[in-house]
Design goal:
The chain has 238 residues and is of the alpha+beta class. It has a single domain, classed as Glutaredoxin (3-Layer(aba) Sandwich), CATH 3.40.30.10. The chain is built from 6 helices and 8 strands. Helix 2 packs parallel to helix 6. It is globular, with a radius of gyration of 19 Å.
Length: 238
């Protein structure tokens, strides 16, 4: 009986402390990170789009990961599944976080099929598909800073982070320590390729964590825009 009681106590302790450890990684102290860079301001609001239920969708007031799966979204299944597993599943449920995928009107039947694939693994409470005219999709995309264009089907494997004030977030300087030591030219990261698993697991997950930290500190009145990211935070993986 004593062994069973001890085993139960250990299991309960592990279940209790795991979420605490996750939050410690999620919210590093205010003195060991840089705020996530604003790489573009005045992103176009999605005023001309409706979700699957006909409701209005907005960037403003939310932390949004926005994607473009085009007129044939089933061809972008890998993009959607990687985004769900490596980003959505980690941050769903956090206040004001959402995934927003813009697709042209007429793609509803394929989106229904794609939803079935995604729903095999979990619900999509914080994931929205929004429908609009192709020209409105281009208007939103062109308001983002991007080094890659949309395809002729209005799709890309890249996703973007938009904050609650319609600012695009990313990295103005994405060089590694070795790049800096070698004095290589500065290059930025304005989007995240969902085909590149390591890019989502390491860079995008880190950047969203940093953005949540910034928001929490602003809410608590502890935000310091001059604070520095610790070197070891760059090495955090999931």
């Amino acid at each position: 009986m004593q062994k069973k009681s001890l085993k139960k106590t250990i299991i309960l302790s592990v279940l209790f402390f795991l979420p605490v450890l996750f939050l410690l990684f999620l919210y590093p102290s205010k003195h060991n990170y840089n705020p996530l860079d604003v790489v573009k301001t005045q992103v176009e609001e999605v005023t001309d789009f409706k979700d699957e239920d006909g409701n209005d969708i907005r960037f403003e007031g939310n932390i949004t990961v926005v994607g473009f799966l085009g007129s044939e979204p089933m061809q972008e299944t890998t993009t959607a599944l990687n985004l769900k597993e490596l980003v959505y599943d980690k941050f769903k449920g956090f206040k004001r976080f959402q995934i927003l995928v813009l697709v042209p009107d007429g793609s509803q039947s394929q989106i229904a099929e794609l939803r079935k694939e995604l729903l095999k693994y979990d619900e999509l409470k914080y994931w929205h598909f929004a429908y609009g005219h192709p020209q409105d999709i281009l208007k939103v995309f062109n308001s983002l800073k991007s080094e890659i264009p949309l395809s002729d089907k209005y799709a890309t494997s890249h996703v973007f982070i938009v904050d609650n004030e319609l600012n695009q977030r990313g990295r103005n300087d994405d060089r590694t320590d070795n790049d800096i030591e070698a004095n290589k030219p500065i290059y930025s990261m304005t989007s995240y390729d969902c085909v590149e698993v390591a890019e989502l697991k390491n860079k995008m997950s880190e950047d969203i964590r940093i953005l949540f930290t910034e928001y929490r500190q602003k809410r608590d009145g502890n935000f310091d825009s001059s604070s520095r990211r610790a070197d070891d935070l760059k090495k955090v993986t999931d």
